Amino acid sequence: MPAGREINFMKIVYLANLRLPTEKAHGLQIMKMCEAFAMTENEVELVVPQRFNRIKTDPFAYYEIKGNFKIVKLPCLDLLPLDRLLGKNALWLEALTFLISAKAYLLFKSFDLLYTREPSASLFIRNCLFEVHSLPQSKRYFFYSALKKAKALVVLTEGIKRALIALGIDGGKILVAPDAVDLEQFKTELSRIEARKKLSLPLESKIIVYTGHLYAWKGVEILAEAASLLPAGCLVVFIGGVKEYIEKFQSRYSQFKNILILGHQPHQAMPDYLKAADVLALPNSGKEEISRAYTSPMKLFEYMTSGTPIIASALPALMEILNQDNAYLVEPDQAPALAQGISYLLEHKEIGQKLALSARQKVQQYTWSNRVKNILNFIINVADRQFKQK
């Protein structure tokens, strides 16, 4: 990319090894990024593997995404339906064959930027720009050597950037870009009562909502334990998860009278669920590094749009966005502290609304459009620096 180039037109290929559409959050994040790249007058192509998928809905309709970019599906050896039999071999074979297909496809394609979340792409394709969402639990030579070769890195948190710099990666080529939200998509004119009627939720209960996956590091078990400590009339609603985790969670907690486990729901329904709540919970555990330092959950920014008070774990990653002025922060992994904080917000509605208003004001800057503009400006600046060093 030549120095001084304006960000008025680029041919961007986003390479993503995922089943599309998927109920997992990374599918939404990737589609939103492609939409935002295309909205800056760029030509965008999302390249993904052709994989077996029980979800038959068109990806643009599934995610409510503008059809302003192209999706290309390439052949691969899709053995992931047999992953219980083959284990990690199925994953590696699928990824390897997809990247070989991508290499062959891109040999005959002209583009300005290859954007990806797949570090292994560096085996096949030069000059990738990597978006980094987490780091391996143990140091892996290939992963870090791939990042060192990258022209630029986009990371979710300052915690990831500090960890990479400590491992010898040039901090000048790392941009911290938290996740984002579509503000228009999360606008709703419904009142709390109207939202509850629409969703068939009890009108008189005090409702605490959690959205997202049911992994342990998300703190969902602590929230479930906290439910038993809440006053009468409270209902904790869990929305999201994939089948395996939903079934395990239900077997453990569905007998609790004040817990409602709804499983995966359409993303289009999230604004109504957030509006129906009295409190929104972000109870991340502090026991794993991904939760302490690396995560930038999209649901955080969705919560912030809602006008509903947020209670969250006081963890460095979350506190890059949240503070005592826009959320009620509690010690992680402590069910009594979480229950006490929820009860406080339910009892002190004026304080809760003040926090919610501050959160809504702050989230205005965290849009997909702003995120993409920051990334493109950073790429241009990195290219300029490299040009001047030659």
> How many domains comprise the coordinates?
2
Major sheet, described briefly? 7 strands, parallel
Shape: globular
| CATH class label of the largest domain | Alpha Beta
Q: What's the arrangement of strands in the largest beta sheet?
A: 3-2-1-4-5-6-7
Could you tell me the number of beta strands? 13
Distance between the termini: 13 Å
Structural class: alpha/beta
Percentage of residues in DSSP E strands: 15-25%
Note down, in words, how this protein is organized.
The structure is a single chain. The chain is α/β, with parallel strands linked by helices. The chain has a 7-stranded parallel beta sheet with strand order 3-2-1-4-5-6-7. A 6-stranded parallel beta sheet has the order 10-9-8-11-12-13, sandwiched between helices. The chain has 2 domains: 11-180 and 367-389, Glycogen Phosphorylase B (Rossmann fold), CATH 3.40.50; 192-363, Rossmann fold (3-Layer(aba) Sandwich). The protein has 15 helices and 13 strands. It starts with 10 loop residues before the first strand and ends with a helix. The radius of gyration is 22 Å and the shape is globular. Helix 1 (25-39) packs across helix 15 (368-389), helix 7 (192-199) packs across helix 10 and helix 8 packs across helix 13. Helix 5 links the parallel strand 5 (128-132) and strand 6.
